[in-house]
Amino acid sequence: MRGYIAKRLLLSIPTILGALTLVFFAMRLTPGDPAALFVPPDVPGQSSAALYAKIRHEYGFDKPLYVQYWDYLTHVAHLDFGDSLRYKQPVTQELASRIPNTLQLGLIALAAATVLGIGLGIVSAVHRGSWIDDSSVVGALLGISVPSFWLALLLISLLALRFPIFPVSGFGGPFYTLDGLRHIAMPAAVLAVGGAGGLARYTRSAMLEVLNNDYIRTARAKGVAERTVIIRHALRNALPTIITLLGLGFGSILGGAVIIETVFSWPGVGRYLISAINGRDYPAVEATVLLIAVSFVFANLVTDLLLAYVDPRIRYD
Q: Taking the CB of residue 9, how many other CB atoms lie within 10 A of it?
């Protein structure tokens, strides 16, 4: 197992390097110059052109692109991501203050999506062909199809403006406090809806496949309680598919958080990324993309290890 983990970590290096390379050149080849954002229209005692050249030299923007790229990789190798051009603070410090907020939002959304999605999938599979099944399938398809930003605006309009039950936006503190729970409820619900829809759909398919096996019919013929058949036999054997989907769902929720954090003014990594892109804050964008790429790699590794734990037939050499 240790050899497999080491192999996966080594194979993840090209993936992370590819993400870093892509975002580096994408930011620098798009129109616009971040140095121009820091030059005021009227500078006493010196020309704007001189100040512009000074800023470009200070941040290394006047170097050839390949030199900038090599310097960037060298600093990343030493875990030095530089200072934010906008906030004048180390990027790692800025991200460290926002990661807990994104983790709270993402984990609560993932927990809600897991409970709702697996529950709907099981109920739909057990009542196959009934109105319960049809309603669950329609609900799952709606959850997958509805754009998250539209659902977010709808909830804000209904539950924050028309009926002021929840705050419009912002961060109210840790989720285990009343004010924190009220602030996180709507963004977590929006993120959970899409994840729950996909999870319910595939849980239903996995359960239907398992319920048609001979050992399920044998257990029922022996008089085993239906609840035991569903939970201990059917769901347990459908877990590999469900765990795989949970790993993918984590990535989906992490990607959706970029939009949802912006809509709800949630002070997390996603909102920080959007702000950095709009301000052409190269170090902030590059460090945030690296964090997201590492999170995806880590989630996939944890998913594979969980699969080996729940399914003894899976062996990693």
A: 12
- Please, is 1 exposed, middle or buried when counting C-beta atoms within 10 Å of its C-beta (0-12, 13-18, 19+)? exposed
Strand, coil or helix: 63: coil
Instruction: Give the model confidence (pLDDT) of 268-316 as tens digits.
Output: 898 899 888 888 888 898 899 888 888 888 888 888 777 777 766 666 6
What mean pLDDT do residues 208-219 have? 84
Separation of alpha carbons 295 and 73, rounded Å: 19
Among candidate residues 1, 16, 5, the one with its CA nearest the CA of residue 295: 16
Task: With CA atoms as reference, report the closest residue to 85 among 277, 309, 228, 217.
Answer: 277
Q: What is the pLDDT of residue 186?
A: 93
The pLDDT of residue 197 is above 70: yes
Alpha carbons 100 and 169: distance in angstroms, whole number: 17
CA dist 107 → 23, 83, 249 (Å): 26, 29, 11
| Higher-scoring residue by pLDDT: 251, 23 | 23
pTM over 0.85: no
Place of tokens 């729940």: 310
Closest by Cα among 159, 184, 183, 310 to 246: 310
Q: Classify residue 315 as left (phi > 0), alpha (psi -120 to 50) or beta.
A: beta
Instruction: Please give the domain boundaries of the chain with CATH numbers for all domains.
Output: 32-80 (no CATH), 91-310 (1.10.3720.10)
